[in-house]
Design brief:
Subcellular location: Cytoplasm
CATH architecture of the largest domain: 3-Layer(aba) Sandwich
Helix content: 25-40%
GO molecular function: transaminase activity
Order of helices and strands: EEEHHHEHEHHEHEEEHEEEHHEEHEEEH
Largest sheet: 7 strands, mixed
Subunit structure: Homodimer.
Number of helices: 12
Strand order of the largest sheet: 4-12-11-10-7-5-6
Distance between the termini: 35 Å
Cofactor: pyridoxal 5'-phosphate
Shape: globular
Structural class: alpha/beta
Protein name: Acetylornithine aminotransferase
Strand content: 15-25%
């Protein structure tokens, strides 16, 4: 008999009842060090006082009115995002998946309203992940994402990750945009080199295309800049944001230039819950913390320390790990052992990591991780790796 919760996840046998900072407490009282942060969502950790206060104060005042009216908290968050980014305008969603849907619509509407309705195709990359909506899975294109869900939404052209010649070859008079994650998350923590980001921007400019960046996982301070593309010194035309922007509250956004968003007039898109007072109050509190030089410098400093220690972990356990990859506090350990076995050994040793493609485990800790947390993380990861080594020896 099918369970009451649709069985689309292979859930670990863990039930967390309380969180504080980088720590989670299981129902049986065990304390786990959380290096997953809800898959890069809890940017400020669990139960951050500023977020608790923002949510509580707003909950006592007003929850929901709909986008038929002005929402001061939404305006405030939009103004903050415009101030700190390339964007001229923002639309708020509840998730990264919804942000993907709008980004695709926005790019196509842009060209339709400019008298080029044939320009609907969007170039995407293998290993990508853009959510699980019809547009998202069609954009990713992998069999794992799409099998059994046809017919797929047309209009996506897939090229090999890192093959810029293939990008140029794929461009036709039907091409509207290029869509890419500056750091692939689900795909195995694969950063796009700065030089490639610059080249993609140039390709878009030379061919009159829009550059869409998916920063759902790599944005909001995770790489040590407010958004990952800033390292390459380029800007997109459209950007998808979610996860960290709400610090655990469901919130997403599409940021865009005035030119890219020119087709999105009244009635072309909407959301019942997107940009509600609760979500935007929390989003403002997140931005007040994350969008400061001191905070971002702290992320980079802690990321350097964590990476240094992880390099040592890899050297100490060559039968388990191959390399460290990633940027900032979006790191991956490429495994020689089966990555899910390493994740499971982590559970046994009270440390949480997240599996990804390419036999990688992701480390996506809260950006508020302390140096003491990092030291403890390495102790627990070392124990997990030792456990895997023993399993390999007896297999």
């Amino acid at each position: 008999m099918i369970p009451s919760v649709l069985p689309t996840y292979n859930r670990a046998p863990l039930s967390f009842v309380k969180g504080e900072g980088a720590w989670l407490t299981e129902a049986d009282g065990r304390r786990f060090l959380d290096l997953g942060a809800g898959i890069a969502v809890n940017a400020l950790g669990h139960a951050h006082p500023a977020l608790v206060n923002a949510l509580t104060e707003q909950a006592h005042a007003l929850w929901h009115v709909s986008n038929l009216y002005q929402i001061p908290q939404q305006q405030a968050l939009a103004d903050m995002l415009v101030e700190h980014t390339f964007a001229d305008t923002v639309f708020f969603t509840n998730s990264g998946t919804e942000a993907c849907e709008l980004a695709v619509k926005m790019a196509r509407k842009h060209f339709h309203d400019k008298g080029q309705p044939e320009r609907v195709e969007i170039i995407t990359f293998d290993g990508s992940f853009h959510g699980r909506s019809s547009a998202g899975i069609a954009a990713a294109g992998s069999e794992k994402m799409t099998k059994g869900f046809g017919p797929l939404l047309p209009g996506f052209v897939h090229v090999k990750f890192g093959d810029l010649d293939a990008v140029t070859t794929a461009i036709t008079d039907r091409t509207a945009a290029i869509l890419i994650e500056p750091v692939q998350g689900e795909g195995g923590i694969r950063p796009v080199p700065d030089a490639d980001m610059k080249t993609l921007r140039r390709i878009c400019d030379e061919n009159g295309l829009l550059l869409i960046l998916d920063e759902v996982q790599c944005g909001v301070g995770r790489t040590g800049r407010l958004f990952a593309h800033e390292w390459a010194g380029i800007t997109p035309d459209i950007m998808m944001v979610a996860k960290g922007i709400g610090g655990g509250f469901p919130l997403g956004a599409v940021l865009a230039t005035e030119n890219a968003a020119s087709g999105m007039t009244a009635g072309t898109h909407g959301s019942t819950y997107g940009g509600n007072p609760l979500g935007c109050a929390v989003g403002c509190a997140v931005m007040e913390q994350v969008a400061t030089p001191a905070f971002l410098e702290g992320v980079s400093r802690k990321a350097g320390l964590l990476r240094q220690k992880l390099e040592g972990l890899v050297a100490d356990h060559p039968e388990v790990f191959e390399e460290v990859r990633g940027m900032g506090l979006m790191l991956g350990l490429k495994c020689k052992a089966t990555n899910t076995d390493v994740v499971g050994a982590g559970y046994d040793n009270l440390v949480i990591t997240v599996p990804a493609a390419d036999n990688v485990i992701r480390l996506l800790p809260p950006l508020t991780l302390t140096e003491d947390d990092i030291a403890e993380a390495l102790i627990r990861l070392d124990k997990a790796a030792t456990q895997v080594e023993k399993q390999l020896a007896t297999a």
